[in-house]
Specification:
The protein has about 350 residues and is α/β, with parallel strands linked by helices. About 35% of the residues lie in helices and about 10% in strands. It has 9 helices and 11 strands. The strands form 3 sheets. The protein has a 6-stranded mixed beta sheet, covered by helices on one side. It is globular and about 65 Å long.
């Protein structure tokens, strides 16, 4: 490791700019381990500049170039991904995308899957109960930002109690990729709130290997999509499938691939927000259908989510002092160059003309 490795925490616009994979707590440990920590000043980050300065970090005003470590959201042909990759190609920078740590044999929890699964499940249950009680999904209350997990759990439990009291039964919940980090969190949340295994349908990648859409999903009240799509998969639900008899009334697309051609739920193309967490999908028959698709769900409990992610990521962050000796970071570098080969200025220009 170099004598004085330097890490720079960038400022970005919200919502992702509110997150911090290096927290004041982990910055203190890194400084004690010989790192120089530069923190780009930010008014939107969930930790104040003064908290970093107090543990020995240096507050700066200008971004540094070179190596970048963050969740880029540009490897699945999302809107704007070609242009962002082109900027790396032109500037000679490198992106080590933490969204793909699992691909590289690293830690799959660094990108907040645990909190995404829990919060998505809570919001889906709240929406299911609200549909039953009030009929009008447009009145679904906002998702409070700045909550803590205890508040989220209590609210979900209360909505579930009221929904069950009205319906006379528990909801049936389908969890796609139920054994991944996000899906496991969703299943754990269901158990925590009193929903037994008999009411949870666990889907694996083997289940989605057959042609879709899947009529089985329509038999559940709630669909939680937790799958990490690195390529095209059959649609889970489409408009044609919604013509069939169904119980399904709430879809929480925790993976939120609406801006990617790999979107496995092609019945919506607009993201939700914490202020308006639910989209109403037009259907010809059956119960109302609501879609929840909020990017960066962990922002609702931001400090808790960041502290958890930073603690898990700290051993890998310490390796950044000599990252080219780390098999995990090297695999992410190789993935970056692999993705870089897929772009060209001609392709970007042609897409811009459409």
């Amino acid at each position: 490791m170099p004598d004085n490795p330097v890490l720079h925490l960038r400022h970005k616009d919200p919502p992702i700019g509110c997150h911090a994979l290096i927290t004041p707590k982990s910055a203190k440990e890194l400084v004690e381990n010989g790192f120089t920590i530069n923190v780009e000043s930010s008014l939107v980050r969930c930790f104040a500049d003064s908290e970093y300065k107090a543990v020995g970090a240096t507050i700066t005003q200008f971004p540094l170039q070179h190596l970048h470590v963050y969740a880029g959201h540009i490897y699945k042909e999302q809107t704007g991904s070609y242009e962002k990759l082109l900027r790396y190609a032109q500037g000679g920078g490198i992106l080590l995308d933490i969204d793909w740590l699992k691909y590289a044999g690293g830690l799959d929890s660094v990108t907040y899957e645990y909190h995404s699964g829990l919060l998505g499940t809570a919001l889906a249950i709240k929406t299911w109960a609200h549909q039953l009680l009030y009929k009008d999904v447009s009145t679904t209350p906002p998702m409070p930002v700045g909550s803590n997990l205890e508040m989220v759990v209590q609210e979900a439990q209360e909505y579930l109690r009221r929904g069950v009291e009205f319906a006379g039964r528990l909801p049936r919940i389908a969890v796609i990729d139920a054994y991944g980090r996000c899906g496991s969190s969703a299943v754990h949340a269901c158990h925590q709130w009193g929903i037994p295994d008999s009411q949870i349908v666990r889907w694996t990648r083997a289940d989605t290997a057959r042609p879709g859409p899947y009529k089985d999903i329509l038999e559940s009240d709630i669909l939680l999509n937790c799958i990490f799509c690195s390529g095209s998969i059959p649609p889970l639900v489409d408009f044609e499938a919604l013509r069939l008899p169904r119980k399904l009334s709430v879809i929480c697309d925790i993976s939120c691939n609406s801006h990617s051609p790999y979107n496995p739920i092609p019945i919506y193309s607009t993201d939700c927000t914490f202020e308006k967490p639910v989209l109403s999908i037009p259907v010809q028959s059956g119960p109302p259908l609501s879609v929840i698709a909020i990017p960066y769900l962990p922002s609702a409990v931001l400090k808790e989510a960041c502290e958890n992610a930073a603690t898990v990521a700290l051993p890998l962050i310490k390796q950044l002092g000599s990252w080219d000796d780390s098999s995990v970071w090297k695999q992410l570098e190789e993935l970056f160059y692999e993705k870089l080969q897929t772009i060209s200025e001609t392709k970007v220009a042609s897409r811009a003309m459409l």
